[in-house]
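User: Before I run my own analysis I want an independent prediction to cross-check against. Here's the chain; please return only the structure tokens and, at the end, one sentence I can use as a sanity check.
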Amino acid sequence: MRQPVHRMSGEVHPGVFRAAMLLAALYVLAAWGFAGRGITDLMLAIVSAFFLVSVGLVALLWQTRRRNPRLDLGDRVREPGSFGHWACRDVETSTGRVRGSTATVEILLPIAAVAVGMVAFAIVVHFAGHV
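Assistant: Structure tokens:
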């Protein structure tokens, strides 16, 4: 009986990065649900700027590396395949091989939990009224 051939990839699909950026944006938008009087608005502006700079720098570095691959570091010029094909492959991580779908869940679960939790808190504060 032949064993199935699993192709390996050491790269995360670009769609996973985009989803993480969207979840970070959702987190920041939900945080503005706590805007009120006083210093709260200033603190929210600072946190929003921090997230904007953090996500912006990562996106800029990713785009730069993608458009200008370093052949001396082993970068390859290639277009990413579909997410479905990537999710079925094994991905090499620092702790070993995992399926692409498992890697996606492990990458997105923490930021998704925080973003959804912040949205839930913002909804509660909106309906309970500002204290």
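Sanity check: The two ends are 67 Å apart (CA to CA).
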